[in-house]
Design brief:
3-stranded antiparallel beta sheet, SH3 type barrels, Alpha-Beta Plaits, 5-stranded antiparallel beta sheet, 3 domains, 8 helices, 270 residues
Length: 270
């Protein structure tokens, strides 16, 4: 039974030095964080709750919990926590002056979260970059581009510059420009386009589609089509609509002309 006595002496020595109390606090912090993670996973399944707010709230709570755990654990070890926090405060002021950009991004991140102009999963464009929002943090936002590369955008950039949220609405309009021959009957062309649009079940009746005359081109009459659809079917439907219009034009004898250029030659030129 010598090994039992050895363990008891070791435990008593650890308890006297505060290590047992320190480990208890660490274990308690891990249990509380695990419970929080389970709770937030259930909350994330509710589509009505903003995902970015849940993510940031979860991280903030975990940070606060671990800060409290470490402070109490260090106090159990007999460490002068007040002195350490005082030194950390002085160091924090010095670091703050040296990291004004990070502070600006932090404040911008708080405004982004409260404003909720875009969410995780939205496709946005900003400052020449575009992609699907993968995560929203207090300092930056990560975009997943179509080539699967990841782009980090500082929050300050998103606050200072216009941001275009392409998929922020459940409906999106397909805009398409068409040119037809000058010999074409515009009323006939309009009827053909309306027929193509009305036969596609993914194109919405409300808002109503529009067919506009946009101008007299150099070699064609310019038309513009605007038809609404659900955002998640936009790209496939745009291709299908173009193919259907092209087929209908060929069947109805509506010509889409090539650009015509007239070249005049000077007969007296050598």
């Amino acid at each position: 039974m010598d090994w039992v006595l050895s363990i008891n002496r070791f435990v008593r020595k650890m308890a006297e030095n505060g290590w047992v109390e320190f480990m208890v606090y660490i274990l308690l912090g891990w249990v509380v964080c695990y419970a929080l993670r389970r709770i937030f996973k259930k909350l994330e399944q509710n589509e009505k709750l903003p995902q970015q707010v849940l993510v940031l709230l979860s991280r903030a709570l975990k940070g606060i919990i671990w800060a409290l755990v470490l402070v109490q654990g260090l106090r159990g070890l007999g460490v002068d926590v007040v002195g350490i926090l005082g030194a950390a405060g002085v160091m924090g002021v010095a670091i703050g002056f040296a990291s004004q950009t990070s502070l600006s991004n932090l404040i911008s991140g708080i405004f982004l979260v409260s404003e909720r102009s875009f969410r995780i999963g939205d496709y946005i464009q900003v400052e020449g970059e575009e992609g699907t929002v993968e995560s929203i943090n207090l300092l930056s936002v990560y975009l997943r581009r179509t080539d699967n590369s990841l782009v980090r955008i500082p929050c300050e950039t998103l606050i200072k510059n216009p941001v275009r949220n392409i998929t922020g609405s459940p409906r999106r309009r397909i805009d398409m420009d068409l040119d037809v021959d000058y010999n074409s009957d515009l009323n006939h062309v309009r009827r053909v386009i309306q027929d193509v649009i009305s036969h596609d079940p993914d194109l919405l009746d409300s808002p109503a589609p529009v067919i506009l005359f946009s101008g007299f081109g150099d070699s064609a009459l310019n038309l513009h089509i605007g038809a609404w659809c659900k955002t998640d079917v936009y790209h496939g439907l745009r291709f299908r609509l173009a193919a259907a219009l092209l087929e209908a034009f060929r069947k109805e004898g509506i010509n889409i002309p090539f650009p015509i250029r007239t070249v005049l030659l000077d007969k007296n030129a050598n």
